[in-house]
Amino acid sequence: MPQKLFSSEFFNALISSETSNRFSLSDYFETAYTRTYDFCESLPYLLSRREVSVTSPFSYETANLDAFCLIHTTKGIGKLFCDTPTQINAAYELTKGTLAFIDCHKQHKLTCLHNIWEYTICFVSSPISSYFHKKLETLGGCIFKMDSNVDTRALWEQLLKLQADDETYGLMRSHALIALYTQLYLSRSKELAGSYHIPSYIADMKQKFDNAYDKQYSLDELSLKYNINKYRLCREFAKYYHDTPLQYLNNIRIEQAKNLLLHSDEKIGVISQMVGIENANHFIRLFKEKTGITPLTYRRETPIIS
Predict the structure, then answer these.
(1) Strand partners, 68
(2) Which pTM was predicted?
(3) Cα 82 to chain centroid, rounded
(4) Which 8-state DSSP code applies to residue 183?
């Protein structure tokens, strides 16, 4: 019996969608791969892949699709809504460098938050993908900051280079997928193992940033407080949290500012002060650097989803 086209399976699983003239969901399947080879019964393999550029409004919601998908954001911001083992309808912002590993059997929704969202999406078969997805969920979830991990990024890029649709390239893609899944698992396991040995002064610094982000900090003051060279402080903080202390602090501030922009009527200058950034112009530049848009654009164009 001939296999049903994966594009047909996708549209049968589609619950709702909203797209602009720039992109059609059928474009997802311009690069679809043969799945009649023997290895497809036991190995993970790519069903389709596509580099995507969408504008707001764009969203779609699916459920009961026999596949997984990998989404790597290269520009702009998307948002993923999905159930997790610990939360119903959890929401994740998919920013530049983020890799999301999504179980398409479960109901989930993807939406473009702002003017533009660019990403690469790969739909993958269930064999082995299901095993790794479950393992990663137990280790803290399936959202990764891939661009901070050289090994993971290299494996992803290798997977995308294997484009020919024949049995040899299909096997090579399967090999690359297993290597990618394994690297994600090993990296996440290493992160968790390292978290039990974080020096007390590094953990204390992070706690201060998390709970008192509106206060003023400098590397010189932190160096004096902990009696540790500021360059060592930066190096060790980044080892455990992937950003320098002030980069981490500014990320916290921008996340808090996003919440205030959407759920208060305070002016931009006031919000800047509330999150600990004294100069409003600096706040606007930093916000645009982190998100790609200004605070006012974020407030105006971001849908508030209940």
Answers:
(1) 103, 124
(2) 0.69
(3) 13
(4) H
Q: Among 258, 303, 288, which Cα is nearest to 79's?
A: 303
d(CA 142, CA 180): 13
Mean of all residue pLDDT scores within the chain: 88
Q: Using N-to-C axis directions, what is the helix angle for 167-195 and 129-138, rounded to 10°? A: 10
User: Using one digit for the tens of pLDDT, what is the confidence trace for 221-230?
Assistant: 999 998 999 9
Residues 7, 83: Cα–Cα separation, whole Å: 24
3-state secondary structure of 237: helix
Paired residues of 55 in beta bridges: 116
Rounded to an integer, what distance in angstroms lies between the CA atom of residue 145 and that of residue 240? 13
Rounded Cα distance, 20 and 257, in Å: 29
Question: Under DSSP, is residue 75 helix (H, G, I), strand (E, B) or coil?
Answer: strand
Q: How far apart are CA 122 and CA 131, in angstroms?
A: 18
